[in-house]
Amino acid sequence: MLGEDVKSAIPLRDEPLVLTEIMRNATLRVCFFLSATLTATAQFQVPLQITLQEAMARARKYGFQIESANIGAALAREDRVQARAAMLPSLNAFNQFIYTEGNGTPSGVFVANDSVHIYNEQAQVHQELLAIVRRAELHRAQAAEAVAKAKVDVAARGLNATVVQDYYAIVSAQRKLINAQHSVDEALQFLDITQKQEVGGEVAHADVIKAQLQVQQRQRDLVEAQLIADKARITLAVLIFPGLRQDYSVVDDLQTLAPLATAVDIQSVATLKSPDLRVARFSVRQAGFDVAAARYAYLPSFALDFAYGINANQLAARSRLPEESGPRGYRQNLGYSGQATLNVPVWNWGAIRSKVKQAALREQQARLDYSVAERQLQATVATAYEEARVSKGQLDSLQNSASLSAESLRLTLLRYRAGEATALEVVDAQTTLMTARNAYDDGLVRYRVALASVESLMGRLP
Predict the structure, then answer these.
(1) DSSP 3-state helix, strand, coil percentages of the chain (rounded to 5)?
(2) How far apart are CA 237 and CA 362, in angstroms?
(3) pLDDT for residue 28 is more than 60
(4) Which of 55, 235, 267, 384 minimizes the number of CB atoms within 10 Å of its CB?
(5) Domains of the chain by range and CATH?
């Protein structure tokens, strides 16, 4: 009945119009509600904006490379503590009870025992006397700790390089996304011009089709640019956040061009602050102490052991004895004993000589690695400097090409409207402009990455 009343109240010829109006009003209300909701949400969820320095600091905090290197340094520090402790006297509390099966004799079934019950409660001190002057083990552990600490710096520089690459990959993707949007707008502008020219009978329909194909291609390029930007943001997020998130942006600092130092200054500072050279240098030192420690096996060892406590048949300082055993009537159980041991190596079938030779070969290899590290650093510095120098020198040319391409597109459009240029020339000018814009942005990114590499070699990055 209600449906019939509604139908009777609305003329049949106007029913589609009324339904359309109702749907339009409902759609407007939904859109208004969603817009208000999104606006309110955006007010409370502002995307995080990160600078390059913040990104590197976050990477050091959450990056597993630094944590792994720090664990290696901590292990080396404990090795040094243990090597130093091995040079000092050790104190142990020795507690033992021995029970022997009785057989009617004072010693029991085991002849070596002096009673059925034996109690050992002693404090034992052990010292290798010659270890005080044999410090190669300690120095070797100290060199190994220095190597581990230098490897932390190596890992930090490697992580910084990765962060710089990923950071500017996002900046580049964002710029190319903007360029792609400009290309879509320019393609739509050309499509509008061709459609108006076709209506006026000035161009053929083929020009409109060419413009439509250009718009579709530029729209696909825009989608692809957005995908590249999202992927770049995910790649960096893995390094700078404890969990995956994409609600952040990076600061575009490509226009702030920092000066480039001279090659001589870069080379000298990089050599002075290179963690790779420090690793190689301390590795040579560590190998030298390995040789000294191996030669210690030729020398005798002299140990001193001192014990104070009880080694008796009763757990007591004094044991009461039968009267006929002596006038004192007791036996003293608490006392001390000392032992000195001198161990002189005589013959071991050349094992010591082989270990010394092996350690010497490792030292020779470490010196060779140090020489290679020096040459590799010089090559790396020279390459980084040339990359930064050349990329910086090309920026003016790339910027000029982008400006000329924009002017060429403007003039080509004017010629097309005047009937002096073809649609193919306009499309070619648009493509040239898009390529020039991207090339200029790539040049900026190339210089900033090269400059960051130089600054990393000089130890200027945080």
Answers:
(1) 70, 10, 20
(2) 42
(3) no
(4) 235
(5) 52-87+134-299+349-457 (1.20.1600.10), 90-132+300-344 (2.20.200)
